[in-house]
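lol ok so funny story. i was supposed to be doing the assay writeup but got distracted and ended up predicting the structure for this chain instead. priorities right. anyway since i did it might as well share w the group, maybe its usefull for someone
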Amino acid sequence: MRIVSDARAYADVLAAHESLGLKALHPPIDFTRSRLLVLGGADAGLELVRLERGDGTSVATVRGASPGVRFLLVPADAGTIKVMP
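and the output, tada:
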């Protein structure tokens, strides 16, 4: 899992996926409003079950899924995101 909070990190994530021959969408992201949550990978998959927002911290509940990367937008004001299986 990776949380992308700025344009430079977003460009790095996209470049890494493209270097593996993977095609990724390149939608613009307004990082003042959203962050990108990257789940899974080529050898393992994760999917988001739910995101519960708390006081400065959000809890992302994930579960195993088919291999692959999933890109999800989450609110920028979600605070620190902790992952729970």
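The chain has one helix and six strands. The chain has a mean pLDDT of 86.
back to the writeup now i swear
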